[in-house]
Amino acid sequence: MPTIIEPLREDWESAQADATAKLLAGDARGARTAVKRFHDRLCDTIVLDPACGTGNFLYVALELMKRLEGEVLDFLKLLGETAEPLRTVDPHQFLGIEKNPRAVPIAELVLWIGYIQWWFRTRERTVMTEPILKDFGMIREGDAVLEHDGEEIVRDAQGRPVTRHDPNARKLHPVTGELVPDPEARIPVTRFENPRPARWPEADFIVGNPPFIGKGEDMRTQLGDGYVHALWASRKKKSDSVDFVMYWWEQAASILALENSRLRRFGFITTNSVTQTFSRRIIEQYASTGKASLIFAVADHPWIKVPKGIRGRRARKAAVRIAMTVAERGYRTGKILTVSTEENLDSDNPTLGIRVDFGYINSDLSIGPDLGSISKLNAAKELALNGVLLAGKGFVLEPPQARALIAASHENIVRPYVDGRELVTRPLGRYVIDAFGLD
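RE: above sequence
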């Protein structure tokens, strides 16, 4: 809703106001034209999910945009429009990138099923034109964060393929009969040639739920050292402390920051580690310059429970804590939701208490001052000084160390040192090296 529908609804309210003003002025035709103009923009709106799986997020986006379209068409009828529109919101507007080849056709089919349901719901079983399913190629198979010119198997000195444990391999447990990890399964280690960031199709909105793999050792286990090193090389940087989902966040933010970018907003569900230091720095580098402001955020939210009887990796999702972030270009204030109470999370009717705050959202997903509005105070120019600051604790001496230096004729670089806390309690007799006194 905050990523796609809220900005579209703002546009719609503006179009409604324009149409109403024209209608009151006696220009019914102009009023219909204003509404049709918005409807055309709605039919041109492109939504991208760069980690779409089987298309859940895209399906919901289609559903919500079709509801909005229904309001538009109802309003047109009130204005006296009798002709059916030549265009409609349809699956070609919803694009996805998915690595799993089996999920790609499922995602396309999910969108078409949703569209057909809306067709019959609003057109009273009017016969659809053939073919009912059109090959728009909305969902692209591929890696959403990494492109390369080839994948090569790494070999040892004897020319044999180097292998690693396959983290996804499973076998039946001989006692319980359940699927458990297979410790003997191996897959080849690969090297990637000319790695670079993947290219995403242009879109007005980007929304998604990137894979929750984690960081550091988790990424290496799931993806392999070769892939992780290629990912670092593609961004010309290295960090074992950045969550995998942040590669999606950063790529969307870099698109949003481009001049003349078509992208209006992006929103992701991520792990709640987005608030940790290294992930937070990625948000900060865009937020501090006005390239991307957070306009909606949830820092810590429980993953809804899975049904009884589901075990393994899917069941472990119940313990995951997630974050939600939506970003828009420029310096903006936003809305942050905080989960204040949690009850019955393991039941079919979990209850969450939510507190809502408004203001500038910091990179750690807290409410703070609007840093973009800060400016220098000219009245204090060349008059204000923040005082003497230590360059590090390594320059602080305890009394025995200071006495030894003074005894060795180095009194010219030893100065008494006291901080504010000691001033209001009692001096501790510490000293500091004055580096400016060194020869």
